[in-house]
Hints:
mainly alpha
Amino acid sequence: xxxxxxxxxxxxxxxxxxxxxxxxxxxxxxxxxxxxxxxxxxxxxxxxxxxxxxxxxxxxxxxxxxxxxxxxxxxxxxxxxxxxxxxxxxxxxxxxxxxxxxxxxxxxxxxxxxxxxxxxxxxxxxxxxxxxxxxxxxxxxxxxxxxxxxxxxxxxxxxxxxxxxxxxxxxxxxxxxxxxxxxxxxxxxxxxxxxxxxxxxxxxxxxxxxxxxxxxxxxxxxxxxxxxxxxxxxxxxxxxxxxxxxxxxxxxxxxxxxxxxxxxxxxxxxxxxxxxxxxxxxxxxxxxxxxxxxxxxxxxxxxxxxxxxxxxxxxxxxxxxxxxxxxxxxxxxxxxxxxxxxxxxxxxxxxxxxxxxxxxxxxxxxxxxx
Length: 370
């Protein structure tokens, strides 16, 4: 079993859903309906919210796809080397700098853009919180320690996932270390699952379960029919569009209530990844160079898109609005321009910052292992 290009592609597409979530949430919070807003409301936005197509901008469903894929890919890379102990120490050594260097630079980037005073009074109230009083040392702490130990997301709201990503990775590395004693591995993961359910907040619990499920996906060799894989994929996308009060999910919300959003997005993320790993047809569709490239730069997109929304999207929106353009026209034009700016800068962020993190973590691992 090898790492599939389709897995990389679906990671990239999921990251685009995160960008859409924040871009649309900046101007149309009605599409998420998490809170009341003074911004204009639109019938089309209400229709989309209540439709089964909200997966197109489902940031939470996308994040669960990330977590499941991480569990799968980390297992894949860990078990390539039969020297489990050596591989464990190498993996543990590499993981933190691999995540922390790009995360740290994203906080420093936000610190820099916050030096420019952007009027955020005409966007969604939740997105207005992106503007804080910047402090250099606070940004350093946030990107290197706070996000990973405490889920601190003041300088980059996307960093709430870093704590789950780091500790979820450690869980997978420990499980792979126990690969030579499968019964111990199963008991260890069962214990982690029970502790997560009993002790941890809901999102962290579901995040760790996603890692564990992704780990077990690696060992599922049994073939399933293509038609079933595609149906699972479609159903997974449908679940990723869930919101608590969306009429398309009223059947689930009748018994899940306020948990509808989290649990259906979690389940949807799991099903999407499973179907992508199992379907030859989906694999062929996703195995395209542009999509693979998108997957390669997805971590960069995820980390820097909020800074670019602040420094590019909101000023363009304000300028258009001040010059007599409608709210809808201003929001759509500014969002479209920003989307391509995000892709452009993510290429270079991946090339210089992400690759720096990979090279640094590799050199550190070689040094410590020696």
